[in-house]
Amino acid sequence: MNILPKTAAHTAATSAENDMRTGHETSPLLQVHGLRTEFVTETGIVRAVNDVDLTLHTGKVLGVVGESGSGKSVTARSIMRMVHSPGRIVAGEILFNGRDLRGLTTDEMRHIRGSEIAMVFQDPQSALNPVMSVGDQIAEALIVHGSDKRTARRRALELLEQVGIPDAERRVDEYPHQFSGGMRQRVVIAIALASSPKLLIADEPTTALDVTIQAQILRLLARLKDDVGVAVLMITHDMGVVAETCDDVAVMYGGRVVEHGPAEVIFARQEHPYTADLLKAMPRIDENGDGRRSQGLPAIPGAPPDPAALPPGCAFHPRCRLAEDQCRSDVPELSPRENGLRAAACWITERGDTIPPLEPADHTGRTTASGGRVTGIAVHPDEDTRGAGSDTSDSTGALQDLLVVDDLRVNVAADRRSLFGRPDPVYAVDGVSLSVAGGETLGLVGESGCGKSTLARTVVGINRPSSGSIRVGAGLVDASSPGGIQALQSTVQYVFQDPYASLNPRRTVRQSLDEALEMRGVPRSERAGESIELIRRVGLNEGHLDRYPHAFSGGQRQRIGIARALAVEPRVLICDEPVSALDVSIQAQIINLLETLRDDLGLGYLFIAHDLSVVRHLSDRVAVMYLGQIVETGPVEAVYSSPQHPYTVALMSSSPVPDTAVRDRERIVLTGDLPSPKDPPSGCRFRTRCPIGPLVHPERQICVEKEPALNTTPAGQRAACHFAGEMVLAPAS
Amino acid sequence: MATNTTTVNGPANGAGNVGAVPRPSARRSGGGAWQRYVSALKRPRGAVGAGLLALLILAAVLAPVLFPDGYDDQSSGALAGPSAGHWLGTDELGRDILARTVFGLRTDISLLLTAVPLSAAIGTLMGLAGVIARWLGTGMQRLLDIILGFPGLILGMTIVLVVGTGWLALFLSILVVGLPMFGRQARAGLLAEQEREYVLAARVLGVRKRTVMVRHVLPNIIDPIVVNASVFMVVAIFIEAGLSIVGLGIEPPVPSLGAMLNTGARYVEVHPAYIIGPGLVLLLLALGFTLLSDALNKAVLRR
Amino acid sequence: MLHDLWTGEIMIRFLLRRAPSVLLVIAATSVIAFLLPRLAPGDAAAAAAGPEATTEQIEAMRVEMGLDRPLVEQYFSWIGGLLTGDLGQSLQFNRPVSELIGDRIGSTLELTIAAMLILTVVGIGVGVFGGSARSRLSRLTADATNTLLLATPPFLAGLLLIIVLGVALPVLPISGEVAVLDDPVIGLQYLLLPAVALAVPMSAGVARLVQSSMHNVWQQDFVDLAVAKGVPRRRISIRHVVRNSLGPAVVALGMRFGDMLAGAVVIEMIFARNGIGQLAVTGVQNADYNLVQVIIVGAVLIAVLMQLMTEIALAGLDPRVRLGA
Fold it and tell me: Which residues contact C98 (CB under 8 A, 6 or more apart)?
């Protein structure tokens, strides 16, 4: 890919000439020059996309990667000329096959959309018209470009088969709500491919999907790219997805492209500190796990800038550890590096300086502003004498269990009632046992619908268990016994996923903290002081106490949520996907905060996540859940290095790794979707999707007939599989 | 809204500034409830609506001052057209139509401002009854279903049959017709709020049920109820006028806007000006509430 | 709209599921209606017998009305009568209630059917116009018209129509009626003004719901997908936006049917139409309990059935709504 000097403005005429050439020298399919898109708001003009240049050749995949507010989605919409009001494209050219799309009439542009450029959207739940059959929606894409109804319908059927919808003949007349999320995204892709477009713009096509479904969709896109020969513009926030799918990468920050080049080159070495630091700040699933928990993650401070208030100079300078005076005043241009192989917009690297690797955060450092131990938060004495033979210690003898869940079942249909009796029970959690000790983290992973959140909510008493026991505290008091609920509330607290929903919008931070302090019995007069200590402990300051939640960013709100949970001096925190709603650069900050708090206060964590890399970084032990049951559990090193259950193997090999060096590794892509817990498969619940089960080996009737027990495997962890250990994780090449 | 958009600058330790993401939920305004109500009045519709209502309420309050002769002075000729002494003419008993219109407005406003808030309060309590006991909540919903089965005016006629015509019947009709609307709204709000994460967080902390209700649930369901009450004002005006116009309204000689339309309708061919006064005032009253409720809806509920 | 929900079995299951709550509302209404003469202040028999009745006459009336028997027995004999078509005797007219209602129901049916048609056409039409309007001016016009109509009660619209079209420019009759089936041309002339007066103000509520629902649908992702497919705006408007807003429109229409019955009472008074509404009003004014009881039960029955039909129609429009679930 050639990065042309800015002065060499390409005209439509020269592009047309380039078309005549052959081979490598063909002119790009899409060339964006100096694109600028603005939104007119009450408070002024917001420049969401600023001087963006992109180049994409036929048959290639260009990844545009950035965090929220970086302008990546607006760039995609600008190319389609689909920017929502009050946004408008104010400058630049969008050359598609040599024609400037900005110069087309509305009707000409409409003809290009769908037939030459198609788009796949983020959320398959809302991207399909609920009252139109999927067949009609695919056919419409052909009919509006001149196809007759019968041909369109026949082609719709073909397309459904092509994108891998089983039983397409029957399903073509069904409605979107009858399809699962992954299947809907396949339908959206079928719509996009209907008229064999030359360019496919995929705006976060897998962000709303689970990791095994994401692997299916990415594989489908790769196959279609080769079959159909379409160029793909892949918009994503996920460096892993970029590394796995893209030929070229453009990194966006604050509305500008800050770095740009072939994927292998960029993942090997970065020329912009933002790209470099972002890659460092991501936990890795293949992280080398020598003596873990020694170091925190290297974190980028601060938050991505508000596009309405971009800092002067380089937009990254307030968060950049290399920033100099020039960075604060002058905007760096995207300048070619390494003979035009790549480009970056940075004053520091432009003069040839290299970027030193971002160091892990000091473990006790920034986040504990007051330093040392905070008096408001009791440190339990037995932590200093870990493993000193307390009679409630678990068999490893190291730590004291503070939360023990035994054979828990939760019927989520129990609360629904109708006039004609109770509905059939639906066990979202079906026989789960686990324990969490002080100072350790148990990671709980699984896809959406596997019951991990129901489990967590049942532990803290939001849902009611149908059977099984929950015991808490140093004395392991049964939560259902008299007084057990008080023990539970003072021992176990909860950190919610969505920082925008977990704080009451009408109450100030102080009021939220006061409520929690009141529950601990802190007298009114002491609450102000305690609040200050709490808010400092999570990395904010007392100036924040009297503000309402809407004044804070997502990361800050998550800090407040953690402070509220800490206010009752709990011993165990249940963290329900605490970082999954946050930007990548913020995730590392919150992970570091959680780690610091755990180690300083000796907290035990039940850490729930779908992101295997985050779980690996933070956990001592891990449990993998599938359809209401734990299928594999054990020390994090054992499970990640030699997973024994085929589901664990599939999960790990499906997780994208932000490293182009391992993009060709063998992946196990599961077929189908998670079955409904209403009617789980007999025997082993995983058998309907298992790559080593009766699907592939029909003689393995044991999987249909007998439920596998969670047995200890030779590798050290426990796995619930009749053929545990048969499937091995392909080593990273 | 000005203070709602203030940003927090990043603290020295680098926790960052306000998120760059204009997420929809991030726009959900929090903080001072009054500011949002005040901001409704800054919208064009809110300003016009509130202005209209302020004028009408002022006129109603000052009626005895503006028309010292009262509404039942029969000293002039009957059914006279507009004149300097009687701007809108006189009615069938020779009473000044303008004076009766303003006193009629007084009757209407007194009904609205008592019956509607009471209906909202009782309806809300009925909707929240499920908090005390599940069966009570279900029972209340059934009761509200039954009331909802009655078309408004039929319900009014039923009440007239029991208590007879007069102020009380109008008051009760408005009160009862509003119950299902407020009750269902409150219940829907309650069910939605109970699932909110900040409510769950309070429960996990062990905050008492009643405290959770008062602190977290109620403040967040009051706003829609208030907005709905302003919408219901218009319905209430129509109920008063509807019952009056079929002759089941307030007892003469006390005027109400609907009662005047009732008698005025009989003389519409000979004295069309008769119904213009009460008709126009009724329209303005309803228009004022419509505009105000629009503005409140946008300013208070938009998230 | 032919999807697999439309089989007879599912419909029967739905009706069975809803039956308990519908029956509850109707049973409760019948009890309320039944208790009315007993709840009223004073002696119902005395009121029914008239102001100059002697004690014997009042006692005779009490026996005639069945007020001397135990309450439960009275209720079941009354409800049994209703179910077997014996609606009782009107006290003021001294004629069977069934006859009175039979004479008048045609007039009210004409009025409500005509008004419902106008309501549907105008409500959805104005709503779709406002919801698809792109220019500021047409949007403003739609909004302003809507707001004004929302604040106008049907009877006021009726009175205005009478003044303008009946008195100032006498083009249409403003009082009385001729059955449409007897003489369609004249009948429709008599019907037009009352039906317009009843329907047009109410159509504002429907229009507003349709409009705001369309505004929401325009923001949906699937509209973006349609744009990205290259679908022309007009087709998006009809196939995607309007189609998805019809559900709320049907709900809006169904909800307003009860209001329409109530509105008909007033409109019949103003336009001097001899319908059930007038009958009900004179019934209330003259404490004709036997008559009013039947009208109340009938009105609630019709309103509840309309709610049920709305739900069925909604399931027909939106495949996500499942009647059986």
Answer: C85, C86, C87
Task: Give me chain A's average pLDDT, please.
Answer: 86
Q: Is residue A122 less than 8 Å (CB to CB) from chain B?
A: no
Q: What pLDDT sits at residue A731?
A: 64
Residue B262 identity:
N
pLDDT of A373 over the 50 cut: no
CB contact under 8 A, C21 and B142: yes
Query: In whole angstroms, how far apart are CA A526 and each of A519, A521, A541, A567?
Result: 13, 10, 17, 13
Pairing of strands A248-253, A61-65: parallel
CA distance B47 to A151: 57
Nearest-CA distance A701 → chain C (Å) = 35
Provide the 8-state DSSP code for A584: H
Q: Assess A540–B contact: CB distance below 8 Å, yes or no.
A: yes
Residue B210: which residues within 8 A CB-CB, separation 6 or more? none
Chain C hits for B234, Cβ within 8 Å = 150-151
Mutation target vs A (from B198, B203, B300; most A CBs, 10 A cutoff): B198
Neighbours, chain C (3 or more CB pairs < 8 A): A, B
The list of chain C residues with pLDDT below 70 reads: 1-9, 41-42, 322-325
Amino acid at B266: R
Are the beta carbons of C225 and A145 separated by less than 8 Å? no
Asked if A549 has any chain B CB less than 8 Å from its own CB, the reply is: yes
Asked if residue C232 has a cis previous peptide bond (ω within 30° of 0), the answer is no
C235 contact A CB<8A: yes
pLDDT in tens, A388-442: 333 333 444 457 899 999 999 999 887 665 545 567 889 999 999 999 999 999 9
pLDDT > 90: what percent of chain A?
65
Is 50 exceeded by the pLDDT of residue A535? yes
ipTM of the complex: 0.84
pLDDT tier at B33, thresholds 50, 70, 90: low
Residue A630 clears pLDDT 60, i.e. is over it: yes
- Contact (CB, 8 A) for A254 and A302: no
State whether residue A413 sits within 8 Å of chain C by CB. no
Task: Check B146 against C24: CB less than 8 A apart.
Answer: yes
What does the block give as tokens for B146? 């039954």
> Cβ(B127)–Cβ(B182) under 8 Å?
yes
Phi and psi of A207, rounded to 5°?
-65, -35
Residue of A431, A432, A428, A408 whose CA lies nearest to A416: A428
Of the candidates C137, C235, C133, C156, the residue with the CA atom closest to the CA atom of residue C202? C156
> Which B residues 11-70 touch A at CB under 8 Å?
11-23, 25-31, 33
Give the chain A residue whose CA is nearest to the CA of B20.
A306
DSSP secondary-structure letter at B213?
Answer: I
Tokens of C117: 């048609």
Residues of chain B positioned with their CB less than 8 A from the CB of A498: 197
Q: What is the mean pLDDT of chain B?
A: 84
Query: What local confidence, expressed as pLDDT, does residue B276 receive?
Result: 87
Percentage helix, strand, coil for chain B under 3-state DSSP, each rounded to 5: 70, 0, 30
Query: In this complex, do C244 and A191 lie within 8 Å of one another by their Cβ atoms?
Result: no
CA distance B133 to chain C (A): 20
Is C318 within 8 Å of A130 (Cβ atoms)? yes
Q: In what order do the strands lie in the sheet with A629-635?
A: A492-495, A572-576, A604-609, A441-445, A621-626, A629-635, A718-719, A711-712
pLDDT value of position C3: 43
**List of chain B residues whose C-beta atoms are within 8 Å of the C-beta of residue C297:** none
pTM of the model: 0.84
> Is the Cβ pair A141, C229 closer than 8 Å?
yes
Cross-chain residue pair A129–C240, CB shorter than 8 Å = yes
